[in-house]
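User: What would this chain look like folded?
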Amino acid sequence: MKTTIRATIAAIALSLPMATLADDHRGPKDNYSVVDAALAVNGEGSPFKGSFDTLIALLTEDVPGRADILNALDGKRQYTVFAPTDDAFAALEQTVLTLGYCSLADLDPQVVNTVLLYHVAHGRRDSSDVLGSSRIRMLTGDFLKHKSAVLTDNLMRDAELIPGALDVEADNGIIHAIKAVVLPILPDPGPGGCS
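Assistant: Here's the prediction, encoded as structure tokens.
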């Protein structure tokens, strides 16, 4: 039976109580970080409640290098985060299955770290800055190309910016929601054997 990305990430998310997550990863009281903003957008009272469970679960997964990414996003430096929705990660499932992996959890954690870093740029770029740019350098050193509110990754896959989910402000940056997961690389083929 196929293990879906959604089921795998749901299991990870269930193992991390959101109240604890919010308490453990909040920046200093004087710093409302992009992590805090992501938790707020995903939480009660938000029109996007529960839309970023997968991203939050991946960021908080206990694997090598992930805490460094989370701590950076919870710090004082300015970042722009392009946040894929849960639907974006679910759509990535077909690519993962095609490559011979049974779920996103089967990918090498360093590959997932690279993918996560490819969603973050140095500096604070509001939507007018993003829309005015033809390309944006990401933390991986690679670029996302931009044209008409659509980002294009290294594999020529498109991710539309989501109107109404742009310019989510934090003290140390800004978040823009996107409709697809952008990929800097195509992971090596997996072992297969998924049934």
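The chain has one domain: 5-178. If you want, I can go into more detail on any region.
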